[in-house]
Amino acid sequence: MLLESRDHISLLIAHVASGKPESTADVHQKSQELIDRLMSRIENERQQEQPLAVSPQESVNQLDDDAPSQAGLWHLSLRFGHGVLRNGMDPLSMIRYLDKLGTVEHIVTLSDSMPPANQMDSENCYLGFEIAFNSSVDQATIDSVFDFVREDSKIRILPPHSPLTAYRRLIQELPEDDAYIADIWSKCGTLTQDELAWMWRSGQNVLADDQRASPQPAEVSAAQQPDVADMSRLPKENKAAGNHFIRIDAEKLDQLINLVGELIIYGAGTNQLAQNA
Length: 277
Fold this sequence. Notes:
This protein has helices at residues 2-17, 25-48, 57-61, 91-101, 139-144, 164-173, 178-188, 193-209, 250-276, and strands at 74-79, 103-110, 128-134, 154-158. By secondary structure, the protein is an alpha+beta fold. A four-stranded antiparallel beta sheet has the order 2-3-1-4, sandwiched between helices. 17% of the residues are buried.
């Protein structure tokens, strides 16, 4: 259908280029036919989509700390350091490489840390990414994609069906607003509305257990379903930047050291040959 539409658009352009802007009845009929077919296809796809439904409060009550997430997707929260481009690393190439390991089901680019244009450094990276990833590989394989940027970046990877507490810890660690991240996760399909509501309620419980916390918000009635925006009430425990760590496979590190050694040897040999010449 798209190829047929492309051919018809080419015909329309050629018709206008020939100095005949008036469409013939046949051309007009074909245009309407293609539009109807495309709109019908779009409508069918919309009907097949399963939106995240807000289920009764009882289903939220059945969730607990050990409950696994329903989505069978990996979730990657990537916050690349400002210096990765200057260090010769390309975040986009790493994301593209994920397609060799599986399928990037959904990706959201975060540009919150980007300064005004007159303050931007063209060699700095200001972007982060939230990615829903479908793959059968193990976590070590996915981790290895980001081995060379871990020192300057914050790479967080959650396996499919991770416990909800892992998502709650992650959302507390991310620098962005909780409600904003929760909305992204909902759109990515990482968490359902029920699971987001549980995180909101469990966040209240954490506040209640912390004597240093401010008074707990008023209790929500059973008939009131928490909205994604209520995720902003989750406690902020780890928003401050932590220490930087680098994790590289020891075998890869040995290979790099050997390569550097060989480069030094070859470099010295080249210098010697140049002096003898």
